[in-house]
């Protein structure tokens, strides 16, 4: 077996969980080696997730705005057209800026990048096989598993990335589809479906659950569903995909709703029915690693697995599969390893859907609070009553608070509207301090800004919104 090199911390995976854990551990004076098989750092998020999807969402939003809204602003535009290769090249460039940025941060913090596929062996040793077959090995006083997740495949629709696409193929379709079928009406399906719809595709979303975005606040889901349909997305909820015929030039997807069978013809299908923990290089049975019901690595609130000195973070431990969750867990794991008395909590973990309008949420939904039996009040404020939103011509949606009836503590906040992804941050901060609606209501917000909708919704929870 190869010579074993050592480091204080060996991190398996260079996505948002692994690269942040690496940098934080290095900041704390530990020697760190991060093992990443891909040709770049950044993981799913930077290479085939958050960043390329947001690049395409931005470009396609500009295009749609020019076509549908420029005239309202007194701007005449003629001859808009999509230059797909240029749009894709920009996306690739944005991704490269991010991956190179992480490489720079690794050099700055003296994190070693061991390139290749790692396999965890007993004794906290990770064997690494480089692309040329060379094998090296790293032993860590601590090991952090950050191997991420992979898309769930439907047995009758295996990914070929030609006609049957995962997120990877859906970010690189070489033409605007005539008809893109999206199986799964969750975040990824709606975001990527929106991209291609804006660029000119007919897009049909098929969702098994009774609504799109299952698990979100009912009011938000209802309004989002209405808006997305108005934008032209065809949405079939409560609809099961039962089979498919894949041809060289297209796909027929067989569906069933309320017992009635039918089929949908498309030239591409995106399967976005969820993601599952990625365990390449980690053999739980051989290692004796404790696993959960959904194939995730079990950890405590300090990200420790049941194996001594082995931690796990990010998508591979389940929960909300979000980059900022992975980053926070990476930070906490590094700090725990460095001896700091910290732990994870998930009460204030935000979540965003980057459609337009955006959806941003934190904390409990109204139906969750109702089911818990806790007495609560709701505050709501629409963007149509906000001056800045009117100047922008972006008046769809609202901000909704759910607060404890007696203490006024913020239990949840759900937003649908322009730039709510950024607007949510103030509520997350307030909740981090266990703030109340009153705390936000007495805070001065600049006028005219979209952020005033949050103040007004908080005032509304207190029964005293000014502009409504
Ligand atoms: P990953 O990012 O999956 O990284 C794991 C890395 O480990 C990979 O680079 C992989 O190559 C490497 N690896 C795995 N096994 C080995 C091994 N044995 N040896 C060497 N290397 C290995 N989240 C958000 O918060 N906001 C968004 O807007 C958002 N948009 C998304 C859009 C799409 C289309 C998708 C698919 C996901 C999106 N996500 C978003 C989710 C986000 O990408 C993930 O939550 C995040 O990437 C998880 O980080 P991670 O470090 O746990 O794993």
Ordered list of secondary-structure elements with their pairings:
Layout (H helix, E strand, L loop, with lengths): L3 E9 L3 H12 L4 E5 L6 H6 L1 H19 L15 H25 L2 E5 L1 E5 L3 E5 L5 E11 L3 E3 L12 E2 L1 H4 L8 E5 L3 H12 L3 E5 L11 H14 L2 E3 L2 E9 L2 E8 L2 E7 L1 E4 L3 E3 L6 H4 L22 E3 L10 H15 L13 E3 L4 E6 L2 H7 L3 E7 L4 H6 L5 E7 L5 E8 L2 H4 L1 H8 L4 H5 L10 H10 L7
Parallel strand pairs: 1-2, 1-6, 2-3, 6-17, 8-15, 9-10, 9-15, 10-11
Antiparallel strand pairs: 4-5, 5-6, 7-16, 12-13, 13-14, 18-19, 19-22, 20-21, 21-22
Helix pairs in contact: 1-9, 3-4, 3-6
Protein architecture, described:
- The chain has 468 residues and is of the alpha/beta class.
- Helix content is 32%, strand content 26%.
- It contains 15 helices and 22 strands.
- The protein has helices at residues 16-27, 43-48, 50-68, 84-108, 167-170, 187-198, 218-231, 284-287, 323-337, 366-372, 387-392, 420-423, 425-432, 437-441, 452-461; strands at 4-12, 32-36, 111-115, 117-121, 125-129, 135-145, 149-151, 164-165, 179-183, 202-206, 234-236, 239-247, 250-257, 260-266, 268-271, 275-277, 310-312, 351-353, 358-363, 376-382, 398-404, 410-417.
- Strands 1, 2, 3, 4, 5, 6 and 17 form a 7-stranded mixed β-sheet that branches. It has a 5-stranded parallel β-sheet with strand order 8-15-9-10-11. The chain has a 5-stranded antiparallel β-sheet with strand order 18-19-22-21-20.
- Helix 1 (16-27) runs parallel beside helix 9 (323-337) and helix 3 packs across helix 6 (187-198).
- The chain is globular.
- The protein starts with a strand and ends in a 7-residue tail after the last helix.
- The model has no long low-confidence stretch (mean pLDDT 97).
- Flavin-adenine dinucleotide (FAD) binds next to helix 1, strand 2, helix 2, helix 3 and strand 4.
């Amino acid at each position: 077996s190869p010579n074993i090199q050592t480091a204080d911390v060996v991190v398996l995976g260079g996505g948002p969980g692994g690269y942040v854990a690496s940098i934080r551990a290095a900041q704390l004076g530990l020697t760190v080696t991060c093992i990443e098989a891909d040709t770049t750092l950044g993981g799913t998020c930077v290479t085939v997730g958050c960043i390329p999807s947001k690049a395409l969402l931005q470009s396609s939003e500009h295009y749609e705005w020019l076509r549908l809204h420029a005239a309202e602003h007194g701007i005449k535009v003629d001859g808009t057209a999509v230059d797909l290769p240029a749009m894709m090249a920009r996306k690739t460039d944005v991704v490269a800026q991010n991956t190179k940025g992480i490489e720079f941060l690794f050099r700055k913090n003296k994190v070693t990048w061991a390139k290749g596929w790692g396999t965890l062996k007993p004794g906290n040793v990770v064997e690494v096989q480089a692309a040329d077959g060379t094998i090296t090995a790293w032993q860590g006083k601590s090991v952090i598993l950050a191997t991420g997740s992979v898309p769930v495949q439907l047995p009758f629709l295996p990914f070929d990335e030609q006609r049957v696409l995962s997120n990877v193929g859906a970010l690189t379709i070489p033409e605007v589809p005539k008809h893109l079928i999206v199986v799964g009406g969750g975040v990824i399906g709606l975001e990527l479906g929106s991209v291609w719809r804006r660029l000119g595709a007919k897009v049909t979303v098929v969702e098994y659950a009774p609504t799109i975005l299952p698990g979100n606040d009912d009011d938000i889901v209802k309004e989002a569903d209405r808006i997305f349909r108005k934008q032209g997305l065809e949405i079939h909820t409560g609809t099961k995909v039962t089979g498919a015929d894949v041809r060289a030039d297209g796909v027929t997807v067989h569906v069933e709703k309320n017992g009635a069978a039918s089929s949908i013809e498309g030239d591409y299908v995106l399967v976005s029915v969820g993601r599952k923990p990625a365990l390449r290089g980690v053999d739980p049975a051989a290692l004796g690693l404790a696993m959960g019901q959904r194939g995730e690595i079990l950890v405590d609130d300090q990200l420790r697995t049941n194996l001594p000195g082995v931690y796990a973070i990010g998508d591979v431990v389940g929960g909300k599969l979000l980059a900022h969750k992975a980053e926070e867990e990476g930070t906490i794991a590094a700090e725990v390893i460095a001896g700091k008395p910290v732990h994870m909590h998930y009460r204030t973990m935000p979540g965003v859907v980057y459609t337009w309008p955006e959806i941003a949420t934190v904390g409990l939904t109204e139906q969750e609070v109702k089911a818990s039996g806790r007495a609560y009040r709701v505050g709501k404020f629409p963007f149509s009553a906000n001056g800045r939103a009117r100047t922008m011509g972006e008046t769809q949606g609202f901000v909704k608070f759910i607060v404890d009836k007696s203490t006024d503590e913020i239990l949840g906040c759900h937003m649908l509207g322009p730039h709510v992804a950024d607007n949510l941050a103030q509520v997350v901060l307030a909740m981090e301090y266990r703030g109340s609606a009153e705390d936000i209501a007495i805070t001065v917000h600049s006028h005219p800004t979209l952020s005033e909708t949050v103040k007004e919704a908080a005032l509304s929870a207190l029964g005293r919104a000014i502009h409504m």
